[in-house]
Amino acid sequence: MGGTSRNALRVSATRVNREPALALAATATATAPAPRRHAKVLTAAFRPLRPGRLVRELLASNAPAAPHAWVLAAARLRLEALSDPAPERWLLRLAERFGAPVGHDGEQQRCSGALARGLPLAAWNAPELLGELLLAAREAAQASSRDGRAGRQSEPCVYTPFELARRMIGSLLVGPRRTLDPACGAGIFLLAAFERAFARRRETGQPAEEAARRVLEHELAGCDLDPHAVALAEFELRLAAFAASGLSDDVPLALYTADALQPLPELETKADIVVGNPPYVEGRGLSNAQLAALRKRFRCASRGKVNLFAVFVERGLELLRPGGVLGFVLPSTFQRNERYRALRELLLEHTLESIEPLEGKAFEGRVVEPVLLRVRKQPPARAWRVHLPGGTVQQRQLPLGPSLRFCDATAAGLREQVQLMDRHGVPLGDYFEVRDGISTGFQPFPKRLLGAHHASRFVADDGTTVTFDPARHVRIVDGTEVRPFAPVAWAGRWFEYDKRHEHEPPHPGRPFNCQLRERAIFDRAEKLLTRQTARGLVATVDRERFFVRNSVHVTYVKEGALLPPLAERDRFPAPSRAVSLAALCACLNSAFYTRYFLAVTGEDGAVFPQVHIADVKRLPVLPGLLREGAPLAALGEELLALHARPDSAEREAEVARARAEVEALLQAAFGLLD
Predict the structure, then answer these.
(1) Alpha helices in 523-601 (DSSP H)
(2) pTM for the full model?
(3) pLDDT tens readout for residues 168-221
(4) How many Cβ atoms sit within 10 Å of the Cβ of residue 146?
(5) Do residues 330 and 373 lie in contact, with contact meaning Cβ atoms separated by under 8 Å?
(6) In this structure, which topology does domain 432-669 adopt according to CATH?
């Protein structure tokens, strides 16, 4: 149950005999000082419970009902399960916030029976149950896109498991502290904070009701744009206080249905702790007006792509008192992705206490690599050391390269290479365009657009057959067909390239966001293809005018791009000022550049390693190396030609020799060899 201690609440068999599933094994004993009302917790052996999975399975086997019906039915069962009756007005107030009556008739009656029969007894003691039920019910009602926690169009939000919230609060909350969750959802962090603060006050001898009252009045605050989630947070906090101490008064709660990114006079610079799991909403989930306002207001949104979690970190630091601590669940990508450079700049101005990785399964069914960030709002001491998985590192040595990527375990030799490349090189994007392949957005690749060429017909994957048109039907490849230096291993796939598809989706009424890009990106005599999903850099030169899917990036020389005139001491003279794609191909396929790329991006294969366009554009290159006719261009052309020959021991030996020459040339050019 919401935020109660392990001996705070008991599901009573006598009060729910008409719902037999709730009465199983309802036995417990109290070991803490008994509050005025004798409520106890179940004494089942602890094991992680996944209420989100349980309620989704339950709702999948029942006919859809309005989300409020499920939530109010569960809330009533929670109240009735208490060994002493909680105030009915709390349930009525919750129903009012949902705009629905409360009762055991109609949909709520049906939902009540399904919940009682379908959920194990332990689920009713899970603090996250009602929040997960709200999300699952919304999904079951086919609300796959909604005005969510942040009030912006996004996928359904993800609430934090209680054990993780408890763990985070335990690392932050020492002594009386004002704890704020600026995107509180159903209040899971506030429930964990109540549990710990209440226990601390009881240990000092404070009476139970007084302890609960003071925690609710002085130590907790939260806000969220989802009014239903805020209503649940209020209901759960009052229920937790009642179950722990018998407090039945309507103590004032600092809970607000509000946007934490806007001014909050009641909360500004008043929090000792800001904690939570901020919304992960990319810029495409925001309106143009919202984006413009964020870019004007927050430095973490002022340039590049926007994700709200970065903005919430900046806002959280604003809401803290000097010396306060912020603890957030963030995606690990914030440490290295180019788009979050402004966030890293901001964090380095404060004292980073720790960055701790979480197991991906902490958020069941979500493909994420979360970390726990803890940062104190105060400038760092010069010798301050940050706690990281592999030990500690001085904060001033944590950032690496011009993008300030957090690279804690970089060996001295590799750090020297990165520093020399960043110091002497210029961004690849100064001379080359780097573009995405064809994307069909939020739908699976439409079967009507992808297919095969038979005789004079184009046969789509959905069985549609039309006359083959060379102007519309083009050869297309994806990342699996791109290998280092090798000719494109085309799988025989064709694509119906027709710009009308961007505006006339093959499945009307469903999100599409098709982006075919401009034909000139692909239909050119020479371009470089690089994999978008790969552990490292994989490149080849395409001279057959293939179109590519969005698992491949396309790179070509910028129009009019010329290298600077030869310097008097140019180490690699060549008569031409033209730029060589073959030379760039040799760079990108080298172990030298792969080491640099992995060091500064951290895309090491944990979950879907990505080669981002921004990272490719930032790769440092030496213009003198890229001249047509220079040694590196010759080696690149040689390696392309060698990979076009059949496999043989002789060919492999020549490839190894040419690759070794590339590595030596790059090390010498950047000053790593005498």
Answers:
(1) 581-588, 591-601
(2) 0.72
(3) 998 887 777 899 999 999 999 999 999 999 999 999 999 999 999 999 999 999
(4) 18
(5) yes
(6) Adenine-n6-DNA-methyltransferase TaqI; Chain A, domain 2 (3.90.220)
